[in-house]
């Protein structure tokens, strides 16, 4: 396999950030990571990079500030220091509610970065095509794009974050660079909705990963563990979704993926069935260890898993890649978070977020999935 970082925080020009005109404070890039991936009509590759932009000085006097979008521009919301827990640099707990409440230390927006056809060099950074919040349900940011090309149209799911809800929004495009927001398609908390790159039985099909406050226990003799798992849903139009009744990928006692599972790349159709890369999390420290695994699904009934490689990870975090920018790591992590793949001929070009900091490209021979 061939591994390298292709885009990192210092590659972002914050003078061209959507926040620059109105935030009225100095910011920095907390991370440029978790990129959606697609092949553009001209043959080049699109990375849709999540840029997490944070305040350099979030604390002023007796308050810590979070960034929020409004129709009039970006503002800084103060929260009393006496009521927050700031042990996690990505977020802080806000006291005073009946439920646990968080505020984010950054606001995320999406930056289209165009690579050459092999994904080895940056051709253009399309700041004029950046995707930033435009609706109140996105006022704390837009995160983790996933892109699928279906019948000539690009479909991009994103996680829209706000106090109103934590749902999934859909964008579409005819060229991969000019996007139209179609609105919310999942209303509940769901971090990893990813459309299959093609229809199943005439229906759009997607991976979902709903979250909850608690999970009901399996019987002691079950091979499965309760917790976040990957489900399937189908739709006639990509807007209105019905969950598939059959269960899909669940944490198993015999696997390292005991903490949770979630989608990674858009499933693509091969001669053997739908190939999907996904992430599994091993419990360790605050964040856990994120690895990429893979599975092969039946062509016509994708809830039927033909093969599941959930033992040794396909990809693991590679500290050597981030060593030159280790001073920018804001949390010790063992995280590789795969977010897309495209066909490269005799290999796949795979995009991931590395250490919640930068964009990683990996070339994986197709023979690895034989």
> Any idea what the CATH architecture is?
5 Propeller
What is the domain total for the residues? 1
Instruction: Tell me the structural class.
Output: mainly beta
DSSP summary, beta strand count? 27
Number of helices: 1
Helix content: under 10%
Looking at CATH, the homologous superfamily is: Glycosyl hydrolase domain, family 43
Radius of gyration: 20 Å
| Beginning-to-end CA distance, first to last residue | 15 Å
CATH topology: Tachylectin-2, Chain A
Order of helices and strands: EEEEEEEEEEEEEEEEEEEEEEEEHEEE
Overview of the structural elements:
- With about 375 residues, the protein is mostly beta strands.
- The chain has one domain (about 1-370): Tachylectin-2, Chain A.
- It is about 0% helix and about 50% strand.
- It is built from one helix and 27 strands.
- It has one helix at about 320, and strands spanning about 1-5, 25-40, 45-55, 60, 65-70, 75-80, 85, 90-95, 100-105, 105-115, 120-125, 140-150, 155-160, 165-175, 180-185, 195, 205-210, 230-235, 240-245, 260-265, 270, 275-280, 290-295, 305-310, 335-345, 345-355, 360-365.
- β16 and β17 (about 205-210) form a beta hairpin.
- The longest helix has 4 residues, at about 320.
């Amino acid at each position: 396999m061939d591994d390298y970082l292709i885009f990192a925080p210092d590659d972002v020009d914050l003078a061209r950030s959507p926040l620059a005109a109105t935030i009225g404070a100095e910011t920095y890039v907390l991370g440029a990571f978790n990129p959606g991936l697609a092949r553009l009509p001209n043959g080049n590759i699109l990375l849709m990079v999540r840029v997490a932009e944070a305040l350099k000085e979030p604390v002023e006097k007796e308050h810590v500030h979070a960034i929020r979008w409004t129709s009039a521009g970006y503002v800084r919301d103060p929260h009393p220091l006496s009521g927050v827990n700031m042990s996690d640099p990505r977020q802080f707990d806000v006291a005073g509610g009946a439920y646990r409440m968080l505020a984010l230390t950054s606001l995320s927006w999406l930056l289209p970065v165009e690579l050459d056809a092999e994904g080895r060099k940056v051709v253009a950074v399309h700041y004029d095509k950046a995707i930033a919040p435009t609706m109140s349900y996105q006022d704390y940011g837009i995160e983790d794009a996933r892109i699928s090309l279906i019948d000539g149209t690009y479909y991009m799911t994103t996680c829209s974050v706000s106090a109103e809800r934590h749902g999934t929004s859909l964008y579409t495009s005819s060229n991969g660079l000019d996007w139209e927001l179609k609105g919310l398609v999942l209303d509940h908390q769901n971090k990893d909705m990813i459309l299959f790159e093609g229809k199943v039985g005439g229906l759009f099909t997607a991976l979902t990963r709903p979250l909850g406050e608690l999970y009901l226990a399996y019987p002691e003799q079950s091979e499965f563990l309760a917790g976040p798992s990957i489900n399937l849903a189908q739709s006639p139009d990509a807007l209105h979704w019905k969950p598939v009744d059959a269960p899909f990928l669940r944490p198993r006692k015999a696997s390292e993926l005991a903490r949770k599972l979630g989608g990674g790349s858009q499933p693509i159709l091969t001669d053997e069935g739908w190939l999907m890369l996904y992430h599994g999390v091993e419990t360790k420290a605050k964040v856990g260890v994120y690895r990429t695994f893979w599975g092969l699904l039946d062509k016509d009934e994708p809830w039927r898993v033909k093969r599941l490689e959930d033992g040794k990870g396909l990809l693991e975090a590679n500290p050597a890649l981030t060593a030159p920018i280790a001073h920018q790591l804001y949390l010790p992590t063992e995280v590789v978070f795969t977010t897309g793949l495209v066909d490269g001929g005799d290999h796949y070009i795979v995009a991931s977020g590395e250490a919640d900091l930068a964009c990683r490209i990996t070339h994986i021979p197709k023979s690895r999935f034989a």
